[in-house]
Every structure is written in structure tokens, then in C-alpha cells.
């Protein structure tokens, strides 16, 4: 009888493995079919889904430069837009680990403008989008160029009224990350670009990744973003790029972003305690949980699984990075095409990743 149950157990295990393998093959086939059938609608993208550096799916389609006929590859550098916020929060976390600052520090410890001194605003408020700072991009739309981080700080000094008391509400704020990057520079004595290169890009061998100085032509292997100007597809003009950084500003590729994500998994960037802070929910002043945003990362759910992710959206730019802790899978999806259906692709990729064996 014992041999019977032993054999039955082996058969059951084999059957489950076969079913799992079949489901994985079907998942990859479904993803392949979707991307192939939707190719004309998707336009241009560079995608990678991987676990522990092992690729589950990877593909690039479309053009980095339509004029020159240069096709997209995993080496092409995209304007990451708000995915830059990850680099800002992690750099500040590294400074915290070095004892140079603390996420709970009042902003007035570093800058003395009225909105910071009178409100009790902390660095954590800046990173969680609960600072109440006004949006600088719309406010400075007609301001003469260049618009720099210093311009934003001057604007805040002249416009000290907050939208709400820090910690009362969530209000997505590029302004907060500009201020946070400026604090990073102040405690480090170096520029934002120098800090990221020294602390992140060089150690992780992200050789193509750059912080923009406002002139994107300096970026190697650049994927030029395109948008519809009337009925014509046109490159995004240089004037659309600001000289601010911290909220946006980083250009990177699928190849380099893989190294960035593996740096997290290897805990090569942050102490375990600080990395937990970055990926954890916060609280509002009334004690309610702010359970959908960490420090530079969105906290979501898909098919009952926690997803740690972030969008990078701007004119002609639709990027997305995600991590599924339960599967230990990362997803990178970068596009330089205005009409790329980013939310739809996100759902398809998450379905594929969650079903992966």
C-alpha cells in the first residue's frame, strides 16, 4: 500500500508540474500574441520581464529615431520622467544610512523659506507627496528659461501658502522631489548628477544612464519621444525639457534598469531597514493609512498580489517599472510613443508575470 501512495504522489507532483509548465507556456504565448496583434497600435516600446536576472520575456519594437531610421533596442535611453523619483528617494536613503540626514528631518533644517519653517514639513512629506507644496510646472509655465531647482526654491519663497497642512492629504507633487533633490545636494556638497553617478550609476555599471542638463542631444543612444502635432507624428521639442531634476531628469535603458533592479535585490544600495521604509506605506496625520505610496514607489494590487511600481509619463513618454515581491519578478516597459496604451500593456504584463512559474 505504501508503494501505491508513493507512486500516486509522484504522479500528482508530475501532473502539477506539467500543468504549471503548460500554463507558463500559454502565458508567454498569449503575451506574444497580444504584442504581435497589437503591434501597429502599440507603436514603439522596449519591454523586459525577468526574475533574478533571468529573462522571462523581452522585446523591442519601433524606432528610436524616425528620421534616421534607427530602431529601438534594449540599449536605447528613454527619458524616464517620474521614474527618476526612485533614484532621488534611494539616494536620500543612502544619505540616511550614512548618517547625513533622516527621512524625519524637518525641511527647515536645510532651507529657510517660509513654507518649510512654519509648517513642520519633513523630508518624508516631500517623498510621500503629502507636503502640500504647490505645483511648480503649471505655476512657472510662462517663466523665462532656464527653470532650475533654484528657480523653484525662489518661487516657493515668494509663494509660501501651502495647499494643505503637511501630512493631511496626498497630492502628487513634482515640487516636493525638486526640493528633496536640492536637500540631497546640500548635505552631499555635490550636484545631483554627480551623486547619482558616483553612488548608483558607476557602482551598478549603468554605463548609458545620464541625468539631463536640459539638452537631450547629449544623451547617447537616445529614444526620441514622439507626439502627434495635429495629424503628424513629431519629435518632442527641446523646449519641453526643463533643467529641474529630482522629480524627472534621468535617461536610462532597459539594459541599465535591469542592473538598477538587481541592485535592490542584492541589497547593494540601502540597509535592510531603509529599504523597508522606501517600500512601505505611511500614515496621514489622522492616523489613517497611506497604503498606496511608499517613498518614490507606488503600492498597488493586481490579481490579489502586491505590486511595487511607478509610472514615468510626459509628452511623448510613457514608462513603467514594477516589482512583484511574491514572484520576485521585475517588469520594465518603456515607450517613446504618445499613443502607446500604457495602462493596457501594464495589465497584460502583470497577468503574464503573475502566471509565470
Overall SS class:
alpha+beta
The shape, in one word, is: globular
CATH architecture annotation? 3-Layer(aba) Sandwich
Domains, number: 1
The count of β-strands is 15
Largest sheet: 6 strands, antiparallel
- The run of helices and strands is HHEEEEEHHHHHHHEEEEHHEEEEEEH
Low-confidence stretches: 7-26
Average pLDDT reading: 90
Distance between the termini: 33 Å
3D structure, described in words:
This protein has helices at 2-37, 39-42, 84-97, 114-117, 123-128, 136-139, 149-158, 174-188, 192-201, 254-265, 272-278, 342-355; strands at residues 45-51, 54-61, 63-65, 70-71, 78-79, 210-211, 226-229, 232-235, 250-252, 282-283, 289-290, 298-302, 305-314, 317-324, 329-335. By secondary structure, the protein is of the alpha+beta class. It has a single domain, classed as Beta-lactamase (3-Layer(aba) Sandwich), CATH 3.40.710. Strands 2-1-15-14-13-12 form a six-stranded antiparallel beta sheet, sandwiched between helices. Helix 1 packs antiparallel against helix 12. The longest helix has 36 residues, at 2-37. The protein is globular, with a radius of gyration of 22 Å.
